[in-house]
Each structure stands twice: as structure tokens, then as C-alpha cells.
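REVIEWER CHECKLIST
Item 1: Sequence provided? yes
Item 2: Single chain? yes
Item 3: Sequence as submitted:
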Amino acid sequence: MKHTFILTLLLSVLCSLPGSRLLAHTGSIRGVVFDGDTRKPLEGASVYIKAANGSAVTDAFGKFFIKGIEPGRYTIAISHIGYANVEDEIKVEDGVTTELKYNLATAAVQMNSVSVNAKKDMNLSSISGLDLKLRPVNNTQDLMRLVPGLFTAQHQGGGKAEQIFLRGFDCDHGTDVNVSVDNMPVNMVSHAHGQGFADTHFIIPEAVKEVDYGKGPYQVDKGDLCTAGFVAFKTVNSLDNSFVKAEGGMYDYFRTAAGISLLNRKDGENAHQDAYVMGEYGYNRSYFDASQNFNRINLMGKYTNYISTDKILSLTLSGFNSSWDASGQIPTRAVAEGVTDRFGEIDPEGGVTSRYNMNLQYFQSINSNSYFKSNVYLTYYTFSLFSDFTYFAADPLNGDQVHQSEKRAVTGYNNEYTTNYTFAGLKMKTQLGLGFRYDDIMNDALDSTVGKTLTLGHIELGDVHETNIFGYANQSIYLLPQLVLNLGTRYDEFIQQYINKLPADNATGAFINGRLSPKAGLYYNIGDNTRIYYSYGTGFHSNDTRTLALGRQLGNDVIVNNTIPQAFSQDLGIVTKPTSKLLLSAAIWRLDMQQEYTYDGDVAVLDTSGKTRRYGVDVSARYELLKWLYLDLDLNYAHGRFVDQQAGNNYIPLAPSFTSIGGVTFKVNKNLNASLRYRHMSDRPANQDNTLTALGYTVCDAVVNYSHKHYEFGTQIQNLFNVQWNEAQFATETRLRLPNGMLEPTSKTDVCYTPGTPFFLKLSATYKF
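Item 4: Structure as written out by the authors:
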């Protein structure tokens, strides 16, 4: 198999090297890094010893440990985004562990705080770390867009999970992007609306500390749904300040948020406790002709106990509820023929959803070289959505409105053990993990309805029980101080059961299958400024359980065998800082996807798509031109086609081909900053033969913020130049009722769209105490 050849090739590189390296006459350094203001451990600081090629990243306790250093005097450099860099002269002695302690002072974000050569396997998240500090973040869409090349589209009044685009994938609402928060999954498998449904609206933006991401299926701890990539949010353990925030804007937009620090207690020299609560409420009528009546409320609380210098226990509780109306997607011809205007509606849509979470996290440092982390989570979730995509195409009398709904309980457990050691003269790192996830989905339903009040009948109704048990292992081998080989794999076992509740339908069954996902990588560090890397990996997204049940009913052997669609991907890339003020990254990539069968939750039918091949180029640049002027740019090109189809009929519908995001940020002084940003998506095929086009767009936003120790004021303009653009777009067969009251003679297929935000101004004010 292809992946076997790649792994054999990489192993041959290892075997060709000397079997041992003498580490005699060496010393070590052990240290801890603190926030200079709060005196709390600072996680994620980069530590680099010049002239010794030694590096580390501080753990959750702010600790780092570097061994195998030849005796002598060295310069150690410590950096962290949002803090002033520290350099210190140290002395390493033979057989001695030197103890160090540093306090980093907060400072304006600077490019020289970014270190490429850190001990992280792939330190691309430095880019999103910079962006999180400098870009305005107002909602979860802004958080997702911190991933270079990731685009989102909303088409249900702000209530439904966004449509996601990444690396030539139309990921629907999350089918090919693994999303998590504090190691708790966001995606919902076998969801009433679509596989992998990732509604991130329960995340309060002000609570997010870090956005980690990866493109492709290379991360060994990311399993199901990680084909195009993953996005992992991490929330803060404590608040620097309590705050109250209010926002208001055009179209009756209003949002308020607050965070209150409840506990900040130090229990001796090495232990302390933190606790806070945070909440938000938002209302938006929106810019459509009919009010969208969007209401959302979020509450969360987090308690963190640094039990000692080597144990952390954290408990997070959160609750979320949202309700909305929606005007739905409008066929292009409906506006041209006067059926409705651009911001009108044909059949009102809407929904209600809620989510309640408990996440208990534990982290323990076993010694200077090893640690253990785990979390257990519980989620209760409800979903109710009314939609009408085709109007009168299926039912000329009552219309085609449908209601999708479900209730589910989710529980899961993750744990991971990581250890660093020396074997045969080589530095090693072993990462072992295992866990499970269980979804109990009750009354997963698709109903035919009229007016959101009358149910005509069930199209699909059943219960789903889905269990995913997994384990993984990853080995990092430091062949040279600068050259690192990663070899890993994970195994996922799925136990899925569908219990049909419609007596006339026999689509019921239980299914068991697994997927082995080998992964490998090789990277080379050039000093502290450049990393060249090659990654190979396989990934997958699981089948909707109803896909398997319906496939068995239809007697399809491929589906009875429960084929899990697999992705094979490769990246060749570079991350470099040619100067202290410029950070560049570039990668060429290819991803092949196997034949897959999918369940269309809008009509309860089985759909197929053939093998696909995507390849492309990603480029990112971050440049601190002046101390007060910061530039950023992302360019992403993807070419995607069906492999087994004839040329001209092999386009992948809605797959993005070229996207770009960029902007300029002005730091006028320490209190005043402003930014001007754009995002661009080119035209792309809306159907397989490219006879219909989803129109591209370029939208610009502007932000001005003034911050002080105790207050902050902001102004934001979305769509600064008031361009007319379409957000979500689909090629859909519809049948309309014309202005004369008559139905169209036959159904027609054209591009249906949700109009994008017009010029929108909003103001915000924050008080910190």
C-alpha cells in the first residue's frame, strides 16, 4: 500500500544513521517561566539555547527541561507572544542540572517574540497566535477564520452552524474539519442535518486563549472528521480583569458580555486556585426584509486548581440556547422574475438549539521528562430546524418544507501520556493515547411540515447509538539536534446501531468496523529561524449511521461492509523568519479521497460521490513593517476534481479554488489601534459540469479600537464598500409560485444563495475592573 511504502522509506533513513551518540560530559537546565504581572505559570513560552541547538516549550506549569548540553556558557532566549523577550547568559556544567526562573513582562505584540524552532512538532499555530492578539474577534466565525485559508458561510440567520471551506473542500457544516474546545469535541456525528455538524456558537469569544490548527490528516490525536484539517480552541484558566461589554449596531443588533473573576487565591508558594464565570446575550433583527429574531444566550464557568507544582485540575460548565427565524436561500431567477427581492423570503425558516457541557480536565507532570493529561466530558444537546430548499418541486400542493430534529447525550474520555528520553544515543519522544466517545441520539427525525406548525408525516425517524473507541501512538526521533522524524498511527473502532421507529421501513441495523490511520513526518530546523518539513498521513470521516442502515436496506454490498472513506495526504512545506520582523510559511500539498457514500439529511436518501484528488499551494506572510504597522496575507490555491469522471464533468461542486485573506493593522499608540481587512473567494463551480457558477466576492472590513486600563471603545464596519455579495450558494432544483399565483410548469435548477452582509456599523464599549 502507498502508506506502507512511505513508512518504509522513512524508517530506512533512521536505520542508515549511526546506532549511538555519546552523551557523556553533558549537563542540563531546568526552569520555570512566570507571567511577570500575575506570577502565574506561563504555558507555551519558547525556550532556545543559542549555539547548542537546544529548545523547549513550557508546559502547563511553565516548566521546561533541556538535557544533553555540553558544558560551557550559553545565551538562553525566552519568548512568548504578548510578552517582552528575555535573553540571559547561563553556565552549563558537566553532570549538573542548572535551575532557572524567569518572569516575563507583558508587552505589545511583536514579531521577534515568534520562534520557529521550538520543540512543538509543527509550530504553525504561532501564526494564529499572532492573529488572535492583533485581529478583531467578535464572534465564532472570526475565531474560525484565524486558520489561514479557512472560510465560513452562514445561511440561517446566524443560528445554524456555518458552512466551512478548507483546502478545496466544501466541508458542509464540519464533515471534514475536526473541531474541539479544551479537548472536548464540537462536531456531532450522525446529526439530523449533516454528518459532523460543528456548531461553535456555544463558545464565548472573550474566553478563548488559543486557537491551534492543522491542515490535512497529520495530527495523531485527531481522528474522526480530520481530513481537510482540525481547529482546536483553548479557553483561559483565569481572567486578568473582570469586565462588562456592550455592543450595538445597525439592523437592531445588540450584544452584551461579562466576565467576573470569582476566585484568585494563592495556597502557599506552589499552589493556587482560579475561578470565573462568563456570559453573553445577543439579539439581531438582521438586514433581511423579515426580522430574523436571532436570540442567543451563553453561560460558562471555569474552576482551575493548581494543586501543586505538578498537578492541575480544571472543571468547566457551560450552557447555550439559541433561537432564530431565517429567510432561507433565494433562487437567482426568483429575484430576476420578481418573485421576491434579494433580501426577501419565499418560505420562512428557523430553528431552536441548545447545548449543555461539563468538561473535567486533569494534567500531571510525572517528572522533568514526562506528563499525563486527560479529560472526561458530558454533553446534552437539542436541535430543531425548519428548512425549505426546493419549495414546490416535490409537493405542489403543500410545499417542501422539512423539519429536522434530535436530542442527544454525549460522553467521552481522552487521555495521553508523553515522555522524553534517550535511547541508543538518540533523543526520543513517545506519545501514547486512548479514549472513547459515545453518542446516544434520540428521535433523530426528518418530517414533512407546513408553516412550522403542521406535521404532515415522518420521512425518517429513529434512534442512533454510536461508539468510537480509539488509541494512538507517535514516536519522535531526534536523528540530529535539528532533524526530527515522526512515526505514528491511530486505530479507531466504530460500533454503530440504528433503531428505526417507522414500522413500514426496515432500515435498521448494527455495524462494527475500524480504521487504521498511519502518519509520518520529517522536519529539519535551520537555526532558530527556519523549518523545512514533509508530512504524510491518512485520515477519514466516519459514515453517518443512517447511511449504513439505508445501504443495508438497499442491499449494497459496499455499504454493508461499512467502508469508511479514507484520505491520503502529503505536505511539503517551510516556515521561516528571514528577518526578525517577517514570518513566512508555504506548503505544496496533495490529498486523495476514496469513494464514499453519504446520507443527505435534507431528503433522507443515500448519495454517492466518486474518488477525488485535490492539490494546491498555501502561502502565509506576517510582517511587522514598523513598530506601529503590521501586515498579514494568506493565499490559498486548490485544484480539485473527481478522478473517475470524464473531463468537463469532473468538477467538485462548491469546492473553493482560490481564496485570500489579508489586512493591515495600525498601532497608533499603546492605546489606539486600527485595522483594514479583506477576504476574497474566487468563482467556483456550483455543479459537476461547471454549467452553474457560485459567484466569488471580495469584502472589506474596518476596525478602530481605543483601550485603557479600565475601559475600551471600538468601532467596526463590515462590508466597508457595501458590495453586493452572496454568502452561501448552492445549485438546487426548485419550483416557484409566480407573482400571478401559478406554479412554474416544471422545476428548474439554478444557483440559490443567501445574500451577504451589506454595510454594517456597530459600536462597542467595555469596562474592566
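Item 5: Key structural point noted by reviewer: The two ends are 60 Å apart (CA to CA).
Item 6: Recommendation: ____
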